[in-house]
Design goal:
The complex is a heterodimer of chains A (about 375) and B (about 260). Chain A is α/β, with parallel strands linked by helices. Chain A has 13 helices and eleven strands. In chain A, helix 2 runs parallel beside helix 3, helix 3 crosses helix 5 and helix 12 crosses helix 13. Classes of the chains: A alpha/beta (about 375), B alpha/beta (about 260).
C-alpha cells in the first residue's frame, strides 16, 4: 500500500534562552523574564517560522505551556494568529491549545478564526497538556481525560451545528452556543491529540484521529504507534502514517563535528535549565489518577528522571535528536522513519540557547541538502 | 417518592388515565412508546411542580377509542383531558419520544392549553433509512435507549411491548418522518425546549435542529453522555435544566447562581 508523503513540521517551543542558572523548580519565577528582551526574541522566533514556510516545511507548529522559561507560548493561538499573516502555504499546526484547561467554546472559536484567517490551513491539536499545566490552571488532573473527551465533543458540535444549541455536560454547561466564525475546512479541520499514554492511544483509535509523541525516544514512539496500529487493525482498519507525529530536535552543520559542537550547549540548556526543574511538579501531579494505567505512570516517571542524565550522544542514539552533516542527518532520518513508522516529522531547530543565525543556517542546510533526499522516503 | 394520586377522565370516546404527584405549577407529562415509567426525574419534578402524567390512548390505563387513529387525534384527546384536570388553566407540557411528537402536535392544535413546552428526544423525525424500532432485538433496543443501563428501568414484559408497538403503529401509520408536523411546527406558540442526548441510538440528535429552525421560540440542548432516555441517563441534570427553563422561560439562558422566576 502506498503511504502518504512525509510531512515536515517546523515546531517551535519559543524557549527563553537567557537563564544564568537552572531555576530551582517549576513554576519558574517571572522575575527571571526580562520583558525588554522579549520583543526581539518573539520577532526572531516568528522570523524562523515564516522562513520555514518559505523553505518548504509543510507545517509550522505551536504549543501551550505555562509559568515556565521552557516556552513563551502561554497562548499558542496568539502566535497562530501572527502566523496566518506571515505564512502562505504551510499548515498552521496548533499542537496545541490545552483543551481540558481552557474554555472549549473559546478553543472552538479561536481555532475557527485561525482556520478562516489562514484560508483553511489549520491542524487542530486537542492537547491534554503536561502534568504541571493542571497546577497552573487550577484543574484537577484526575479529570483530564473526561474533560478532554467532553470538550472534544463540544468543540465538534460548536464547529458543525448550524443552529444555536445548548450543552448540558458533565464538566461544561452552556445554555446557548453559536460560534462565529465557523471553520473553513469541511467537515472540520484535521484533529491530532497527544499520544503519550495508553488511554490517549485508545481514545485516538476510537475516534480515528492522529497522535503525536514528544520528548520520547524512537523506541517509545514506535511502541505508541505500534499499539495504535494494533488497536486499529483489531477494529478493522489500517492507519496511515500521516496519523503519527514524532518530535525531534535538529541541528545540521557542514560537518558532524561542527554540528555536535554547536548543539551540545543548547541541548544541555534545554534539559538542565528548561526541563529538569519541572520534575517535582510532574511527580506531584501524576501521583493521582492522571494516568489510569500504572504502567503509563511508571514510564512517565522514568522518562522524567532520565532527563537528568541526558547527553547529546544519548539524544542522537535514542533518536530524540537529529544532528550532524546533511549526509548524516539524511541517514538518521532514513533510519528512524521505517523504524518508528511516523509520517509527520515534528522537528525543532531552535533548541534551548541556539542563536537565531545558527538556527537559520541549520534550517537552510536542512532545506537544501536534507529535504530533497528524504522527501520520497 | 412523593405520594402519587391517580384518576381517569373521559375525553371523547377515550378514557384517559392520569397519575399525579407534587405541588406547584402544573406540568403535564406524556410518556414514550414504552409507556409511563415514573423514575428519579419525575420525582425530581414533583418537588417543584404538580406533575400530571397522562397515559396516551392505548397505553397503560387509557383506552384507545375508535376516533383516535393518529397522533393528532391522540393529542386532541389528551388536550381534552388536560383541560379537565387543570380546570381550564394552561399547563407546562413535557413529552418524551413518542410523547414528544404527541406534545408537539398538541401544542400545534391546542395552543391555549400549553404554557411552556419541553420535548425530550422527540420522535417526529426519524430519517427514512433508520430501521424501525420493532426490528431491534430487545438487548440492542435497550443499548440504543440507555447510555447508562445500570440506571435504566427494568425491561418490559414482551407481551406488553408487543401491544405498545401495535398502538404506535396504528397512531403513526408506520411513518417515522412526520412531514405534516414539520410543516406546522411554526404554529407552536409556546416557548419550547428540545433536548437530545449526544448518544441517542434511535434518533440522530441532529434532528433537534429541525425543531430549532421551525419553532418560533425554541431552544435546542444537547445532553452529554445521555442516549435516547435522557431522564434515565442524566436524571439530575435533566430536572435542573428543564425546571430552570419552565421557571424562567427564555431567561434560562442567563446563568444565575440563584435562579429567579421570569
Amino acid at each position: 500500500m502506498s503511504q502518504p508523503p512525509l510531512v515536515f513540521s517546523f515546531f517551535h517551543l519559543m524557549a527563553w534562552p537567557y537563564l544564568e542558572q537552572p531555576p530551582a523548580a517549576w513554576p519558574v519565577a517571572h522575575r527571571l523574564f526580562d520583558p525588554r528582551r522579549g520583543p526581539r526574541l518573539y520577532g526572531e522566533y516568528l522570523d524562523q517560522m515564516a522562513l520555514a514556510d518559505e523553505l518548504g516545511f509543510d507545517w509550522v507548529g505551536c504549543n501551550e505551556h505555562h509559568y515556565t522559561s521552557y516556552g513563551l507560548m502561554a497562548s499558542p493561538t496568539v502566535i497562530g494568529g501572527a502566523l496566518t499573516q506571515r505564512t502562505r502555504r504551510a499548515k498552521i499546526a496548533m499542537l496545541g491549545s490545552l483543551v481540558p484547561l481552557n474554555n472549549p467554546v473559546r478553543v472552538a472559536e479561536e481555532y475557527a478564526m485561525l482556520d478562516v484567517m489562514s484560508g483553511g490551513r489549520l491542524v487542530a491539536g486537542f492537547i491534554r497538556g503536561l502534568p504541571q499545566e493542571y497546577i497552573a490552571y487550577g484543574v484537577d488532573p484526575d479529570e483530564s481525560y473526561e474533560r478532554l473527551a467532553e470538550a472534544w465533543d463540544l468543540i465538534l458540535r460548536a464547529w458543525t451545528e448550524p443552529e444555536p444549541f445548548g450543552w448540558e455536560g458533565k464538566h461544561y454547561r452552556f445554555r446557548t452556543v453559536s460560534i462565529w466564525p465557523r471553520p473553513l475546512q469541511e467537515p472540520h479541520p484535521p484533529i491530532f491529540i497527544s499520544g503519550g499514554s495508553s488511554d490517549s492511544v485508545r481514545l485516538a483509535v476510537e475516534r480515528r484521529v492522529g497522535i503525536g509523541v514528544a520528548l520520547a525516544s524512537a523506541e517509545i514512539a514506535r511502541a505508541q504507534f505500534d499499539s495504535y496500529r494494533a488497536l486499529a487493525r483489531a477494529a478493522g482498519w489500517e492507519p496511515t502514517r500521516d496519523l503519527f507525529f514524532w518530535d525531534q530536535a535538529v541541528h545540521v552543520a557542514k560537518t558532524d563535528v561542527a554540528a555536535r559542537e554547536a548543539f551540545r550547549g543548547p541541548t544541555d540548556y534545554f534539559y538542565r535549565y528548561l526541563l529538569v526543574p519541572t520534575r517535582r511538579a510532574n511527580e506531584l501531579v501524576i501521583q493521582g489518577g492522571y494516568y489510569h494505567d500504572p504502567a503509563d505512570r511508571e514510564r512517565r516517571l522514568q522518562r522524567v528522571r532520565q532527563r537528568e542524565t541526558v547527553t547529546l550522544e544519548s539524544e542522537i542514539e535514542q533518536g530524540r535528536a537529529l544532528c550532524g552533516s546533511p549526509d548524516t542527518v539524511v541517514e538518521q532520518i532514513r533510519r528512524w522513519v521505517p523504524y518508528v513508522g511516523h509520517g509527520v516529522l515534528n522537528v525543532r531547530f531552535q533548541v534551548g540557547t541556539m542563536p537565531h543565525d545558527e538556527v537559520v543556517a541549520s534550517m537552510r542546510l536542512f532545506a537544501t541538502e536534507v529535504l530533497p533526499h528524504v522527501r520520497d522516503l | 417518592m412523593p405520594q402519587q394520586e391517580e384518576g381517569r377522565v373521559t375525553a371523547g370516546d377515550c378514557a384517559i388515565a392520569w397519575h399525579a404527584a407534587g405541588d406547584g405549577p402544573l406540568l403535564a407529562y406524556l410518556h414514550g412508546a414504552g409507556g409511563l415509567r415514573w423514575g428519579r426525574a419525575l420525582d425530581g419534578f414533583a418537588e417543584r411542580f404538580r406533575v400530571v402524567a397522562f397515559d396516551i390512548p392505548g397505553f397503560g390505563g387509557s383506552t384507545l377509542g375508535d376516533s383516535v387513529q393518529s397522533i393528532p387525534d391522540a393529542a386532541d384527546a389528551l388536550a381534552a383531558a388536560m383541560e379537565q384536570v387543570a380546570h381550564g388553566e394552561r399547563m407546562h407540557l413535557m413529552g418524551t419520544s413518542l410523547g414528544g411528537r404527541t406534545a408537539a402536535w398538541l401544542a400545534v392544535r391546542h395552543p391555549q392549553r400549553v404554557d411552556r413546552l419541553v420535548l425530550e428526544s422527540p420522535a417526529a423525525f426519524r430519517p427514512p433509512d433508520a430501521p424501525p424500532l420493532s426490528s431491534f432485538p430487545p438487548d440492542e433496543l435497550r443499548r440504543r435507549l440507555y447510555g447508562n443501563p445500570e440506571q435504566a428501568p427494568p425491561t418490559d414484559d414482551p407481551a406488553v411491548r408487543q401491544q405498545q408497538f401495535q398502538v404506535m403503529a396504528r397512531l403513526t401509520k408506520g411513518v417515522g418522518w412526520d412531514s405534516e408536523l414539520e410543516a406546522r411546527l411554526g404554529e407552536i406558540e409556546a416557548p419550547t425546549l428540545v433536548l437530545f442526548g449526544t448518544q441517542d441510538g434511535l434518533i440522530p440528535p441532529e434532528m433537534g435542529r429541525i425543531y430549532k429552525e421551525r419553532i418560533p421560540q425554541a431552544f435546542l440542548t444537547y445532553v452529554y453522555q445521555a442516549a435516547h432516555a435522557i431522564q434515565w441517563d442524566r436524571p439530575d441534570a435533566f430536572v435542573d435544566l428543564v425546571s430552570d427553563f419552565l421557571e424562567r422561560g427564555e431567561a434560562f439562558v442567563v446563568p444565575r447562581a440563584k435562579a429567579t422566576a421570569g
